[in-house]
Amino acid sequence: MERKNIWMTYGEGELQELHKITEKYKECLDKGKTERECVTLTVEMAEAAGYRSLEAVLEEGKALVVGDKVYAVCMGKTIALFQMGQEPISKGMNILGAHIDSPRIDIKQNPLYENEDFAYLDTHYYGGIKKYQWVAQPMALHGVVAKKDGTVVNVVVGEKDTDPVMVITDLLPHLGAKQMDQKASVVITGENLDILVGNRPMEKSEDEEDIKEAVKANILKILKDAYDMEEEDFLSAELELVPAGKARDCGLDRSMILSYGQDDRVCAFTSLFAMLDVENTAKTTCCLLVDKEEIGSVGATGMQSRFFENVVAELVALNEGESELKTRRALQNSRMLSSDVSAGYDPLFADVFEKRSAALLARGISFNKFTGSRGKGGSNDANAEYIAKLRKVFDDANVAYQITELGKVDAGGGGTIAYIMANYGMEVIDSGVAVLNMHAPYEVSSKADVYEAVKGYRAFLRME
């Protein structure tokens, strides 16, 4: 079943809407390079659209009624938005679920050291990456420093044109013969991903003795002046290294977007756009943006935590009265699109794809009936009846879509949050945007697919 390139189907009005959506999407990518930044941006956009925090709603003590808009945040890294539908919440919700963490390089808790007049920050990579792709790239530092007095300082260095950037160094080819003979997995090791942050010693007065590790001391002075930060404050900091620079149009025809973090923020932001657009629905709608998917959805801010379940229990209590049974019904009766990216078909690496089942760029939103790897291990496998309902909804809304798989059967695979939500007994399928260069510092998506994702997510939220 051939799917045609959807650029040829658009009229002038659709092209204008596509441009508006994709420009907004690029702005969100620039503002949300970490999970914390994505949550902050989401709260800002949600409150502008009339959403209130769950804490404020609970303090007010009033029942939730049709049309009420609520959001809840977990530790600044996960957020759930809800709009109350015409039916009781125990009848189920329409849920868009995406993750907002992306592969990156994290700074360790005792990171700063000096070696031969170079100052470095020691690192530990996060998520599945090809380590050699992250060297010799301009890098920016994002995150927070939490101090003992309770203050939290936001850190962003490397994004403004006037900011310095940092870099992970690589070996020059003239001396790299041995390196080039190694397997790609060990060309650059995890311990060699330390980031270069300085080379200039701290100046001393004429009567002052030589400063021990003067380059490191100068970096500490810079951090003290800029953020009132001591070396000990690294112990309670969360700092991430991400590629510096903005999302850019890709291709001479400007048909694509090149940016860091599109896995999975291309699905997160398109889900958010749809959630903020759609109102007056039969079912309660939800947009769930979570952390830690890239490392197994673990921890308090990952999908395996009780955060979402606890928030739903609070909403049930505010909508229908406190009831564990109704909370379970609300979860089991729900439908979900696990909004996660699919591996875009790349003709230059055609040997790992089965083309008839591959996700092609500019062919619309991708449905993956199952993910997992080799024999569907570790996957959710959506019911045929659910897929049939979605086909009708998307066809009626004139949304372009494709049914795909993640590469050849024995080539590998991957997982999403779908199987975790399916544990509640709800209908779940993976649905997202095809991406090239997944998990690389810069990933590629089609503007047409971004547009179709927003259209598709809107249609899903309106499902009765």
Radius of gyration: 24 Å
The first-level CATH class of the largest domain is given as Alpha Beta
| Largest beta-sheet details | 9 strands, mixed
Strand-pairing-aware structural class: alpha/beta
CATH architecture of the largest domain: 3-Layer(aba) Sandwich
Number of strands: 22
Fourth-tier CATH superfamily name of the largest domain: Zn peptidases
Count up the domains: 2
Strand order of the largest sheet: 1-2-3-13-4-14-20-16-18
- What is the count of DSSP helices, taking H or I runs of 4+ residues? 12
Shape by Cα distribution? globular
Could you please say which CATH topology of the largest domain applies here? Aminopeptidase
Arithmetic mean of pLDDT: 94
Terminal Cα span = 28 Å
Low-confidence stretches: none
Strand fraction = 15-25%
**Residues in helix, %:** 25-40%
Question: What are the main properties of this structure?
Answer:
464 residues; alpha/beta; nine-stranded mixed sheet; Aminopeptidase; Aminopeptidase i, Domain 2; six-stranded antiparallel sheet
Summarize the structure.
The protein folds into two domains: 6-102 and 260-461, Aminopeptidase, CATH 3.40.630; 104-243, Aminopeptidase i, Domain 2 (Roll), CATH 2.30.250.
Structural overview:
There is one protein chain. The protein folds into two domains: about 5-100 and about 260-460, 3-Layer(aba) Sandwich (Aminopeptidase); about 105-245, Aminopeptidase i, Domain 2, CATH 2.30.250.10. Strand 1, helix 3 (about 55-60) and strand 2 (about 70-75) form a beta-alpha-beta unit. The chain is globular, with a radius of gyration of 24 Å. With about 475 residues, the chain is of the alpha/beta class. The chain is built from twelve helices and 22 strands. About 30% of the residues lie in helices and about 25% in strands. The strands form four sheets. A nine-stranded mixed beta sheet has the order 1-2-3-13-4-14-20-16-18, with helices on both faces. Strands 8-7-10-5-6-9 form a six-stranded antiparallel beta sheet. A five-stranded mixed beta sheet has the order 11-12-22-21-15.
